[in-house]
Amino acid sequence: xxxxxxxxxxxxxxxxxxxxxxxxxxxxxxxxxxxxxxxxxxxxxxxxxxxxxxxxxxxxxxxxxxxxxxxxxxxxxxxxxxxxxxxxxxxxxxxxxxxxxxxxxxxxxxxxxxxxxxxxxxxxxxxxxxxxxxxxxxxxxxxxxx
Length: 146
Prior knowledge:
single chain; 146 residues; alpha/beta; 5-stranded parallel β-sheet; 5 helices
């Protein structure tokens, strides 16, 4: 399914499977795990650019990374509408499903960004739309370029 080439102006919370996005779409090739944090920082900085666009102030991004909390360059920016979580002892999948359930109880419009088919299936059972990391990047990259 091809990504739509527009971004709605309606408020949406994008819950992003951060580690999955990095490994599946951000890097062109497999990188050592210790280099992923630098890529994660770059991705978070990119999201702050998206968040700063006047047409995207109604968008919120919740990014969940696997593992313990760590210092990521983009995390220090803390713009409104960008929240970064670490799964700690849980799986990122469990944290993300908890996030989408919570947001749905608040009547929020939620889109889960992942290429993990099991996670996407679980989210759709919760009534949440899903898109792949490639589609997410393509949609928002088009916004930056335009």
